[in-house]
Design brief:
By secondary structure, the protein is of the alpha/beta class. The protein has 9 helices and 13 strands. It folds into 2 domains: about 110 residues, Nucleotidyltransferase, domain 5, CATH 3.30.420; about 160 residues, Nucleotidyltransferase, domain 5, CATH 3.30.420.40. The protein is globular.
Amino acid sequence: MRHVIALDVGGTGMKAALVGADGELLHRARRATGRERGPDAVVDGILGFAAELRAYGTEHLGEPASAAGVAVPGIVDGDTGVAVYAANLGWRDVPLRALLAERLGDVPVALGHDVRTGGLAEGRVGAGRGADRFLFVALGTGIAGAIGLDGRVEAGAHGFAGEIGHVVVRPGGLPCPCGQRGCLERFASAAAVSQAWAGACGDPDADAADCARAVEAGDPGAVRVWQDAVDALADGLVTALTLLDPRTLIIGGGLAEAGETLFSPLRDAVRRRVTFQKLPSIVPAALGDTAGCLGAGLLAWDLLDNTDRTEVSA
């Protein structure tokens, strides 16, 4: 059965799948990223995992994978296939596409940014299916986005498109590791909510999920922390929709797991802020933690489709 390898590399774990032409996940696997052993060990782990997936496909699906797609965090140059920088993995300028192609027997390999790759999957086969313009925003440890245009995701001229987490929403506010002050992710990420609620309730182990539960229970301190985050997020999102005019706004990541505890006040806050702008549909992501793998598989299938078209035209 014809299939591709899909790898989603995170800071602590790697998710992988063999993906059929119809998007079916034919085989799934996970393993630790192993970042505590250093960046070279992480790269070796990725290459070894991909080789194991290739062997599994050959044995159980009757043929080796036709292509591979890999999603990684940090700064990614998809055109050259280089993982430029990832703070949480400790690597710089890793020619990951070339290394994988060599290990897998010169099959075509696509390399993508993890959030943009997850956004690609949400746009094509998830919550944004059928939308010609969408914005995917992941609310995790940080905040990042993916700009969807007619079935693809825009990387930008230098690979930085969609970095909504570094839109300044509170000028002169909290310092951000990016060098600015008042960035959105310092106020509305899951990490920011966790920090604010831990300080407010006096429990250093309290996190964003605890805050959401306290909001649902009517705790006034939790409601204040939560509303501050929602207001900051709404300010950032209205800036984005003013620039991009998306038809659908997809919210994913850990904070979105709060469901309507997040979405109901967020929709209200965005609605209060728009004037001339068209209000997009604001919906939760649909694919959960499979989005990265599915998106990596889509990148791989896109490579094969482009190759097939090139060969036909030649």
